[in-house]
Specification:
Keywords: Isomerase, Rotamase, Signal
InterPro entries: Cyclophilin-like_dom_sf, Cyclophilin-type_PPIase_CS, Cyclophilin-type_PPIase_dom, E_coli_cyclophilin_A-like
Shape: globular
Function: PPIases accelerate the folding of proteins. It catalyzes the cis-trans isomerization of proline imidic peptide bonds in oligopeptides.
Distance between the termini: 28 Å
Helix content: 10-25%
CATH architecture: Beta Barrel
Order of helices and strands: HEEHEEEEEHEEE
Pfam families: Pro_isomerase (PF00160)
Structural class: alpha+beta
Number of helices: 3
Catalytic activity: [protein]-peptidylproline (omega=180) = [protein]-peptidylproline (omega=0)
Number of strands: 10
Strand order of the largest sheet: 3-4-6-5-7-2-1-10
Protein backbone atom coordinates (compact mmCIF):
# COMPACT_ATOMS: atom_id res chain seq x y z
CA UNK A 1 0.00 0.00 0.00
CA UNK A 2 1.32 3.39 -1.01
CA UNK A 3 0.39 5.00 2.33
CA UNK A 4 2.64 2.63 4.28
CA UNK A 5 5.78 3.86 2.57
CA UNK A 6 4.75 7.51 2.83
CA UNK A 7 4.02 7.15 6.52
CA UNK A 8 7.39 5.55 7.28
CA UNK A 9 9.26 8.44 5.70
CA UNK A 10 7.05 11.05 7.33
CA UNK A 11 7.44 9.48 10.75
CA UNK A 12 11.22 9.64 10.61
CA UNK A 13 11.27 13.20 9.32
CA UNK A 14 8.75 14.65 11.75
CA UNK A 15 9.68 12.91 14.98
CA UNK A 16 12.72 15.09 15.63
CA UNK A 17 11.05 18.34 14.53
CA UNK A 18 8.50 18.77 17.32
CA UNK A 19 8.88 18.76 21.09
CA UNK A 20 5.40 19.00 22.57
CA UNK A 21 3.02 16.99 24.77
CA UNK A 22 2.77 13.30 23.94
CA UNK A 23 -0.37 11.18 24.13
CA UNK A 24 -0.68 7.40 24.11
CA UNK A 25 -3.64 5.88 22.26
CA UNK A 26 -4.13 2.23 23.22
CA UNK A 27 -6.46 0.58 20.72
CA UNK A 28 -7.77 -2.94 20.33
CA UNK A 29 -5.24 -3.36 17.51
CA UNK A 30 -2.22 -1.93 19.33
CA UNK A 31 -0.74 1.29 20.67
CA UNK A 32 -0.09 4.58 18.92
CA UNK A 33 1.83 7.55 20.28
CA UNK A 34 1.26 11.06 19.03
CA UNK A 35 3.28 14.20 19.68
CA UNK A 36 1.29 17.44 19.71
CA UNK A 37 2.46 20.78 18.35
CA UNK A 38 1.08 23.33 20.80
CA UNK A 39 3.17 26.14 19.31
CA UNK A 40 1.54 25.85 15.89
CA UNK A 41 -1.96 24.90 17.10
CA UNK A 42 -2.36 26.04 20.72
CA UNK A 43 -6.17 26.16 20.80
CA UNK A 44 -6.55 22.82 19.03
CA UNK A 45 -4.02 21.07 21.26
CA UNK A 46 -5.70 22.45 24.39
CA UNK A 47 -9.06 21.27 23.06
CA UNK A 48 -7.76 17.76 22.30
CA UNK A 49 -6.08 17.44 25.69
CA UNK A 50 -9.32 18.46 27.40
CA UNK A 51 -10.96 15.31 26.06
CA UNK A 52 -7.86 13.28 26.87
CA UNK A 53 -7.82 14.50 30.47
CA UNK A 54 -11.55 14.06 31.10
CA UNK A 55 -11.25 10.42 30.02
CA UNK A 56 -14.05 10.60 27.46
CA UNK A 57 -11.95 9.33 24.55
CA UNK A 58 -11.65 6.00 26.35
CA UNK A 59 -14.24 3.59 24.98
CA UNK A 60 -14.74 5.62 21.81
CA UNK A 61 -14.16 4.10 18.39
CA UNK A 62 -12.68 4.80 15.00
CA UNK A 63 -15.91 5.00 13.01
CA UNK A 64 -14.62 5.96 9.57
CA UNK A 65 -11.84 4.22 7.67
CA UNK A 66 -10.67 4.81 4.12
CA UNK A 67 -7.38 3.01 3.27
CA UNK A 68 -4.92 5.37 1.61
CA UNK A 69 -6.81 8.37 3.01
CA UNK A 70 -7.70 8.64 6.72
CA UNK A 71 -9.01 6.89 9.81
CA UNK A 72 -11.38 9.03 11.90
CA UNK A 73 -12.66 8.60 15.44
CA UNK A 74 -13.21 9.90 18.93
CA UNK A 75 -16.85 10.90 18.48
CA UNK A 76 -18.91 7.74 19.08
CA UNK A 77 -18.99 4.88 21.58
CA UNK A 78 -19.04 1.22 20.53
CA UNK A 79 -22.83 1.37 20.11
CA UNK A 80 -22.40 4.31 17.68
CA UNK A 81 -23.91 6.74 20.17
CA UNK A 82 -22.56 10.31 19.81
CA UNK A 83 -20.45 11.42 22.76
CA UNK A 84 -20.83 14.79 24.54
CA UNK A 85 -18.74 17.69 23.26
CA UNK A 86 -17.37 20.95 24.54
CA UNK A 87 -17.70 24.16 22.55
CA UNK A 88 -16.15 24.10 19.06
CA UNK A 89 -12.54 25.18 18.68
CA UNK A 90 -11.33 27.93 16.36
CA UNK A 91 -9.83 26.72 13.07
CA UNK A 92 -6.01 26.84 13.06
CA UNK A 93 -5.37 25.20 9.70
CA UNK A 94 -3.33 28.19 8.53
CA UNK A 95 -0.49 27.24 10.89
CA UNK A 96 2.06 25.82 8.46
CA UNK A 97 1.35 22.17 9.35
CA UNK A 98 0.15 19.99 6.50
CA UNK A 99 -2.00 16.87 6.21
CA UNK A 100 0.94 14.57 5.57
CA UNK A 101 1.11 10.84 6.20
CA UNK A 102 1.04 10.12 9.92
CA UNK A 103 -0.25 13.54 10.96
CA UNK A 104 -3.24 13.92 13.29
CA UNK A 105 -5.86 16.58 12.57
CA UNK A 106 -9.36 17.67 13.57
CA UNK A 107 -12.49 16.60 11.72
CA UNK A 108 -15.21 19.21 11.24
CA UNK A 109 -18.32 20.12 9.27
CA UNK A 110 -18.37 22.61 6.38
CA UNK A 111 -18.08 25.35 9.00
CA UNK A 112 -14.30 25.86 9.47
CA UNK A 113 -14.78 26.62 13.19
CA UNK A 114 -16.90 23.57 14.04
CA UNK A 115 -14.33 21.01 15.24
CA UNK A 116 -15.06 19.50 18.66
CA UNK A 117 -13.81 16.04 19.60
CA UNK A 118 -13.50 14.00 16.40
CA UNK A 119 -9.99 13.66 15.00
CA UNK A 120 -8.39 11.75 12.17
CA UNK A 121 -4.99 10.35 11.24
CA UNK A 122 -3.74 10.64 7.67
CA UNK A 123 -2.63 7.44 5.97
CA UNK A 124 -1.00 9.43 3.15
CA UNK A 125 -0.23 12.98 2.06
CA UNK A 126 -3.69 14.53 1.63
CA UNK A 127 -3.07 17.93 0.10
CA UNK A 128 -6.78 18.40 -0.59
CA UNK A 129 -7.38 18.76 3.17
CA UNK A 130 -4.95 21.66 3.60
CA UNK A 131 -7.06 24.33 1.92
CA UNK A 132 -6.15 28.01 1.91
CA UNK A 133 -6.26 30.61 4.66
CA UNK A 134 -8.40 28.99 7.40
CA UNK A 135 -10.53 26.80 5.15
CA UNK A 136 -8.48 23.63 5.64
CA UNK A 137 -8.45 21.01 8.36
CA UNK A 138 -6.26 21.74 11.37
CA UNK A 139 -3.21 19.51 11.81
CA UNK A 140 -2.01 19.58 15.41
CA UNK A 141 0.33 16.63 15.84
CA UNK A 142 2.17 13.65 14.43
CA UNK A 143 2.21 9.91 15.10
CA UNK A 144 5.67 9.10 16.43
CA UNK A 145 5.22 5.40 17.24
CA UNK A 146 2.90 2.68 16.01
CA UNK A 147 3.36 2.50 12.25
CA UNK A 148 2.53 -1.21 12.32
CA UNK A 149 -0.69 -0.47 14.22
CA UNK A 150 -1.82 2.03 11.58
CA UNK A 151 -1.16 -0.62 8.95
CA UNK A 152 -3.36 -3.07 10.87
CA UNK A 153 -6.10 -0.45 11.15
CA UNK A 154 -5.91 0.32 7.43
CA UNK A 155 -6.55 -3.35 6.63
CA UNK A 156 -9.76 -3.69 8.65
CA UNK A 157 -12.72 -4.43 6.31
CA UNK A 158 -15.35 -1.69 6.04
CA UNK A 159 -18.91 -1.40 4.83
CA UNK A 160 -22.26 0.33 5.18
CA UNK A 161 -23.48 1.01 8.72
CA UNK A 162 -27.22 1.53 9.09
CA UNK A 163 -26.95 3.19 12.52
CA UNK A 164 -24.61 5.89 11.27
CA UNK A 165 -26.13 5.79 7.78
CA UNK A 166 -22.60 5.93 6.47
CA UNK A 167 -20.22 3.93 4.34
CA UNK A 168 -16.56 3.22 5.15
CA UNK A 169 -17.39 2.08 8.70
CA UNK A 170 -15.11 -0.66 10.11
CA UNK A 171 -16.93 -4.00 10.33
CA UNK A 172 -15.15 -4.71 13.62
CA UNK A 173 -14.99 -2.06 16.32
CA UNK A 174 -11.57 -0.45 16.67
CA UNK A 175 -11.84 0.83 20.22
CA UNK A 176 -9.70 3.40 22.02
CA UNK A 177 -9.24 1.46 25.25
CA UNK A 178 -6.94 3.96 26.96
CA UNK A 179 -5.94 7.52 26.07
CA UNK A 180 -3.51 9.34 28.34
CA UNK A 181 -0.75 11.91 28.41
CA UNK A 182 2.76 10.53 28.56
CA UNK A 183 5.08 12.04 31.14
CA UNK A 184 8.19 13.70 29.66
CA UNK A 185 11.39 11.74 30.06
CA UNK A 186 13.61 13.07 32.81
CA UNK A 187 17.37 12.82 32.42
CA UNK A 188 19.21 10.78 35.05
CA UNK A 189 22.65 11.69 36.45
CA UNK A 190 24.23 9.08 34.16
CA UNK A 191 22.72 10.57 31.02
CA UNK A 192 25.21 12.45 28.83
CA UNK A 193 24.58 16.19 28.68
CA UNK A 194 26.20 19.00 26.69
CA UNK A 195 28.10 19.91 29.88
CA UNK A 196 29.70 16.47 30.04
CA UNK A 197 31.52 16.83 26.76
CA UNK A 198 32.31 19.32 24.05
CA UNK A 199 30.93 16.82 21.51
CA UNK A 200 27.21 17.36 20.74
CA UNK A 201 24.99 14.46 21.76
CA UNK A 202 23.36 12.72 18.80
CA UNK A 203 19.83 11.57 19.72
CA UNK A 204 17.79 8.81 18.16
CA UNK A 205 15.24 10.70 15.96
CA UNK A 206 12.51 8.22 16.93
CA UNK A 207 12.80 8.97 20.64
CA UNK A 208 11.50 12.06 22.44
Amino acid sequence: MKSVFLFAASLLAAASAWAGPKVELVTTLGTLEVELNEQAAPATVANFLRYVDDGSYEGSIFHRLIPGFVVQGGGFDSAFTPLPTYSPVVNESNNGLKNTAGSIAMARTQDPNSATRQFYINFSDNNSLNGGRNSGYTVFGQVTAGQEVLEKIANVPTGMNLTLRARDVPKQNIILERVRRLEPEVATPNDPTPQDSDTPVERDPLKP
